[in-house]
Amino acid sequence: MSDKIIAKIKYISEPDSKKTSDGTVGKALVMLDLVASFERPVRFSEILSKSAYPKATVYRLLQTLSNQSMLDYNAQTATYIPGIRLVRLAHSAWRQSALAPIARPILDDLADALGETLHLAQMDDGHVLYVDKRNAEKPVEMFSSAGKTGPGYCTGVGKALLAFMPEKEQARALTRQSFHKYTAATLADLPALKAELLEIASIGMAFDREEHEPGIICVAVPILNGLNRAIGALSLTSTTSHNSLSSIKRFAPKLQEAARKISDAAKNWQFPT
Question: 115 near 136, Cβ under 8 Å?
């Protein structure tokens, strides 16, 4: 199991007072997140070992979620995977809440103009949700893809989003960071992250300096609404063998122009608060 998946499972399985205070529904949603975080069919014993809930509670939640087609149980392999009902709900949420449908033509134009890897992301409980992606003319293998989640504290889009969150929302999002050390360059603690977020808020852009994956760098900008709040983030990602941080910084004005266009297009769109 990769470091990224281990860190993701740890993040999801850690107690969260907001989620656990939402009763059975909150617990069921935590269980869905936990099953999905394995990114493969998973056995009951594995789920139980990572869950904060008693065995009887885990069993009851898995049974209910399977009965409702939110999970799919394979009796032959005795494993669980996310269910088909989740696919339908995810598709509906993507159409109604994600920036991707609005940003698609703008992202297409930007990809044609720059020829580099582009990411469109939104914040999900302190984590980054990649809602769309455009590959470079010469595609580079990396962690991110549309529909995946990544950490907020060590990705360009994550830091761009965190830096432009309202104070209370930012404070809660910061408590959800694991500070798992993915690389030697990963920010290791909250004070270091807070200091960088202040700088990002000042200059209007963020960088990933090989903090999440070795050899992968990026420049990111927030997509801001009229209240100067980030409703999303846009990034250009490259490799240290192809570019340097100083060289990708030159793309920032183009990213900011595209971010403004997406913001303008999103003015009549209803986003989750």
Answer: yes
Residue 1 amino acid letter: M
**CA–CA separation, 96 and 193 (whole Å):** 32
pLDDT digits (tens, 9 = 90+) for 73-96: 999 999 999 998 988 887 777 666
- In three-state form (DSSP H/G/I as H, E/B as E, the rest C), the secondary structure along 173-199 is HHHCCCCCCCCCCCCCCHHHHHHHHHH
Task: Look up residue 102 and give its two tokens.
Answer: 């609005």
Q: Which pair of tokens denotes residue 51?
A: 């869950």
Please tell me the distance from the alpha carbon of residue 140 to that of residue 149, in angstroms, as a whole number: 18
- Residue-wise pLDDT for 48-71, tens only, equals 999 999 999 999 999 999 999 999
3-state helix, strand, coil in the chain (%, to 5): 50, 20, 35
Write down the pLDDT at residue 3. Answer: 53
Distance CA 9, CA 146 (A): 19
Interstrand relation of 206-209 and 216-224 (parallel, antiparallel or unpaired): antiparallel
Q: pLDDT tens digits, residue range 173-209?
A: 999 999 999 999 999 899 999 999 999 999 999 999 9
Per-residue burial over 29-52, b if 16 or more Cβ lie within 10 Å, else e, is ebbbbbbbbbeeebeeebbeebbe
Residue ranges of domains in the chain, CATH in brackets: 3-89 (1.10.10.10), 98-265 (3.30.450.40)
What are the CB-based long-range contacts (under 8 Å, 24+) for 55-63? 57/27, 58/31, 61/24, 61/27, 61/28, 61/31, 62/31
Q: Kindly give the pairing relationship between strand 206-209 and strand 117-124.
A: unpaired
